[in-house]
Specification:
Layout lengths: L8 E5 L3 H13 L4 E5 L7 H9 L4 E2 L4 H5 L6 H10 L2 H10 L4 E3 L4 E4 L4 H15 L2 E3 L3 E7 L5 E6 L9 E4 L1 E4 L11 H4 L5 E7 L1 E4 L12 E9 L4 E9 L3 E3 L1 H9 L1 H6 L3 E7 L6 H14 L15 H10 L13 H13 E6 L1 E3 L5 E6 L4 E2 L4 E2 L5 E3 L13 H21 L2
Parallel strand pairs: 1-2, 1-10, 2-6, 10-22
Antiparallel strand pairs: 3-5, 4-5, 7-8, 8-9, 11-19, 12-15, 12-18, 13-14, 13-16, 14-15, 16-17, 20-21
Helix pairs in contact: 1-6, 1-13, 2-6, 4-13, 10-12
C-alpha cells in the first residue's frame, strides 16, 4: 500500500466491479502512482457477490467484438473498439493469471469453475492488495472540483474519511459509482458539465396481476417468443411463469431492449406469448388438422403437444373452453381455433414491473459522446474518467454488464497510469 503524499494520486470512486478493475489496472501499470479506492458503503463488490445466484456470471462466450456488442441495447456501436482492446478473451486470461479459471455453460454464460462469486471477489481484492491499492470504505466524495492548475479537490464525508481529512487532492479521478434509477442522483455529474441520458430501469420482469397463468407458478418453457402488442418489441428465449406474472430471459431481454419505450408506456400493455415460436398460423393450422385426424380418440387436455409442460397445456385447453374429457374427434372448430390463438398469442395484461433478483440495471447515465472510449476520459473535464454503469451503457442478462465493467475499468485504469507515469 502506497501512502507517500508526494506520489501522483488517482482517486477511484466506487468499490464495485468497474472501480476495482480500474484501480488494479492503474496500480499495476504504474507502480509510482498512489491509487485510492473510495466506497461510500461498508461493503465491497456487492453486486459481484450476489450475481448469478451467488455464482457470478463473469462474462459471456463471444469470440469477437462484433458478436459481443450485439447484446448491448445502449452503447453497442461505441463499445466495439473498446472490446477489441479488452474483450472476453482478455477477461478470461486476466482471471486465469490470478488462479481463477472460468467455465462456459450451454447458453454461453461464463462462471468461475468453483461456482462461487466469492472466488471472483477474493481474486479482485487480492489483486488490489498486491498492486498496492488503498481501499477505504464508508467514505464518499460529496463534491468534486476541478482545479485551475490541474487535478481535483474532493470533499469527503463518512466514517472512513477520518484518516484522509475533509478534502482530498487527486491528480486523476475515476468515477465508477454505478447506475442509479433517480435522475437527481446524477446532478453532481451535471455540475461537472456532463449531460445525462435520463435513467430508467432495465432488466425487469412483468407484473400480470390478472394472469390466467397464476396457478402455474414455476412452470418454464425453454423457447418462447414475447411480443409487446402494438410495438416493435419482441424477444425469444426461456420463459418462466411466476406468482406475479412472467420472467425468464425472454422477458428480461425484452425489457432491456424496450427499457425506454416501456417507461414511456408506464409499464402498462399487453404481452403476447408465442409458446411455440417455430410455428406460425400457416404451419400450425394444418398441423392441428392432421393431428386431429390421426389421433381423434385422444383426450385433448391430457396429451400435451410441442413439448409443452402438462400443466401449461391443460391451462391453455381450459382457456380455450375445452373440457377435461373432450377428445380431438369431438373438438368444436371454435375451440380448436381458440387453442391455436392461445398457442401463438396468449395475451397477458402487463401492469407494472418487478426487479429481477439482483440483476437490476439502469438504462441511462453519462452520455457516451462526451467520453473518449479509447481511454474513458471525459471530453469535458481533463483528468476525469468513467467506467461501468455510470455510463449510458447496459447489456442484457448473461454476463454482458460485467464485461462492460471489466473493459471500461481496464481501459480507464491503463489510461490514468500512462497519464501519471513519470
Amino acid at each position: 500500500m502506497k501512502t507517500d503524499a508526494t506520489l501522483p494520486l488517482v482517486a477511484v470512486l466506487g468499490g464495485g466491479a468497474a472501480g476495482f478493475f480500474g484501480a488494479i489496472a492503474c496500480a499495476e501499470a504504474n507502480p509510482h502512482a498512489r491509487v485510492l479506492l473510495l466506497e461510500k458503503t461498508g461493503k465491497l463488490l456487492s453486486k459481484v457477490r450476489v450475481s448469478g445466484g451467488g455464482r457470478c456470471n463473469v462474462t459471456h462466450a463471444c469470440e469477437t467484438a462484433a458478436q459481443l456488442v450485439a447484446h448491448y441495447p445502449r452503447g453497442s456501436k461505441q463499445l466495439k473498439s473498446a472490446f477489441q482492446r479488452f474483450g472476453v478473451a482478455d477477461t478470461i486470461a486476466w482471471f486465469a493469471r490470478r488462479g481463477v479459471p472460468l467455465k462456459t455453460e450451454a447458453d454461453g454464460r461464463m462462471f468461475p469453475t468453483t461456482d462461487s462469486s466469492e472466488t471472483i471477489a477474493r481474486a479482485l481484492e487480492e489483486a488490489a492488495r498486491r498492486a498496492g491499492v488503498q481501499i477505504i470504505t464508508n467514505t464518499s466524495a460529496d463534491d468534486i472540483q476541478p482545479l485551475p492548475t490541474g487535478g481535483f479537490r474532493l470533499r469527503l464525508s463518512g466514517t472512513g474519511a477520518a484518516g484522509l481529512g475533509p478534502t482530498l487532492h487527486a491528480h486523476r479521478v475515476l468515477i465508477a459509482t454505478g447506475g442509479n434509477p433517480k435522475s437527481a442522483n446524477y446532478d453532481w455529474l451535471r455540475s461537472l458539465g456532463h449531460s445525462i441520458a435520463e435513467p430508467v430501469p432495465s432488466l425487469f420482469t412483468f407484473n400480470v396481476p390478472a394472469s390466467p397463468l397464476q396457478e402455474l407458478m414455476g412452470v418454464s418453457v425453454p423457447h418462447a417468443r414475447v411480443v409487446l402488442a402494438g410495438e416493435k418489441l419482441q424477444y425469444e428465449g426461456p420463459l418462466l411463469v411466476t406468482h406475479w406474472g412472467v420472467s425468464g430471459p425472454a422477458v428480461l431481454k425484452l425489457s432491456a431492449w424496450g427499457a425506454r419505450r416501456l417507461s414511456e408506456l408506464g409499464y402498462v400493455g399487453t404481452a403476447l406469448i408465442n409458446w411455440i415460436p417455430t410455428h406460425t398460423e400457416e404451419t400450425l393450422r394444418p398441423w392441428l388438422q392432421q393431428f386431429r385426424q390421426e389421433n381423434g380418440r385422444k383426450v385433448v387436455a391430457s396429451n400435451p403437444q410441442f413439448g409443452l409442460p402438462q400443466r401449461l397445456w391443460r391451462n391453455l385447453a381450459e382457456q380455450a373452453g375445452i373440457g377435461p374429457e373432450t377428445r380431438w374427434s369431438d373438438l368444436p372448430a371454435k375451440s380448436q381455433n381458440r387453442l391455436l390463438e392461445l398457442l401463438l398469442r396468449s395475451p397477458l395484461a402487463v401492469r407494472g414491473k418487478t426487479t429481477y433478483k439482483e440483476e437490476f440495471v439502469t438504462c441511462g447515465g453519462v452520455m457516451l459522446d462526451e467520453v473518449d472510449l479509447k481511454t474513458m476520459e471525459s471530453r469535458r473535464v481533463p483528468g476525469l474518467y468513467f467506467a461501468g454503469e455510470v455510463l449510458d451503457i447496459d447489456g442484457i442478462t448473461g454476463g454482458f454488464n460485467f464485461q462492460a465493467a471489466w473493459t471500461t475499468g481496464f481501459l480507464a485504469g491503463q489510461a490514468m497510469a500512462l497519464r501519471d507515469k513519470n
